[in-house]
Amino acid sequence: MRILVVEDDDLIGELLEMILGEMGHDVILTRDPEGALQRMIQAPEPELLVTDFNLGGVLTGVDVAESFVNRYPKAPVLVISGRPEEAKDKITPRCHAGFLPKPFRADDLSAAIDGALALARAA
Description:
This protein is an alpha/beta fold and 123 residues long. The protein has helices at 10-22, 33-42, 61-71, 84-87, 106-122; strands at residues 2-6, 26-30, 48-52, 77-81, 97-101.
């Protein structure tokens, strides 16, 4: 599966890229919302978005998720965050996004991806 990952922390982004790659996914990694928006236009169609909630700027992962869903209405979204109490309430139903709090293990990530896929199918 082609996965667009948006993570502003270099170490976490590289770790996600490695874990998802080991799971057999093709990963497109970007560090900021603007880069993610460009990748949505330039890259082959991503089949899943995994985005951090807090991206260190004005735009959040939910903003990226909404743009992603506008472009790919049936594609699943997974929002991750180290501050779950802040992020979970901001995820709109329109995003049909799964949620995964940091820190997490590889098997948690795999299960959350499965959950996000199920949410998108139900939408």
